[in-house]
Fold ABC-2 type transport system ATP-binding protein.
Amino acid sequence: MPHSPAVEVRGLVKRYDGRAVVDGLDLTASAGRVTAVLGPNGAGKTTTVECCEGLRAPDAGSVRVLGLDPVADGPALRPRVGVMLQDGGLPTGVRAREMLDHVARMYADPVPTDALAARLGLDAFARTTVRRLSGGQRQRLALAVAVVGRPQVLFLDEPSAGMDPQSRLAVWELVRELRDAGAAVVLTTHLMEEAEGLADHVVVVDHGTVIAQGSVADLLASGTGTAVDDDGTLVVRVSADVDPAGLRERLGAGFGVEHRSASSFAVTGPVRPGTVADVTAWLAERDVLVTRLDTGRRTLEDVFLDLTGRSLR
Ligand SMILES: Nc1ncnc2c1ncn2[C@@H]1O[C@H](COP(=O)(O)OP(=O)(O)OP(=O)(O)O)[C@@H](O)[C@H]1O
């Protein structure tokens, strides 16, 4: 089997108004693998993917998809590449199912649309025009349109953004199947859970360039944070919102406590069995139930924040 990468980006530069929003970016994606591109808002992910899709021409560097130039060889690539744009990118006056059937007719060997519509739950809004679809429904239709031609390369820009949990699971299952069938899947996402669950290879982009890459396991192992060997993170999910600030005093010096959401907080520091006991006792005194405890394992989100910092873009 030939092993040239399905997508190969070298030294990509894209400027807007003289500002390089993609600045010497390298990216490789292979057949039969899901490559997830992560990065803060404005990092240059969509611009990079749009250059791969032939929607934007690079200012410098090279982009090859299946060995071809996405701009110059667009007509040759179109039947072999599936694209799901961030805003759906579908014409708004067409009914959902007509849209899918119309696109399917353009391919020699499309996926049967009845089955595809059923598994992505399109039947419930088959006769609704794209304009009237909810955000998540539009995303599901856009995904169906992207995959109906059995693409060898599939670009998904934030595929599950705005989707309910049921749809997200259906999308993940479909992406895994396509990957297992040999497609090269490139997806951008802000969902760390999506990257952890789907990606064979993760590329972290910031300020238009790649700042880290590898498998999820590689990235978790290569933690760049300040944690010393002895330190760990205890992520605590709770049944009721609780301000964990007082817990810091209880745990003493060397511990940090971070409120993450209404139902979770994280304790960082030299986490020991006694620490877990202290945390649960402190919560019990407040009549708050622990619904989940994760110990000792940095998450992809921890790594991502270490790499890209905490300032808003
Ligand atoms: N057509 C355009 N004209 C001018 N600036 C643009 C254009 N398209 C994108 N940009 C800018 O390029 C930068 C990168 O945008 P891009 O959409 O690639 O980021 P992203 O990583 O996909 O971000 P997000 O996570 O928010 O989707 C941003 O600062 C954006 O404002």
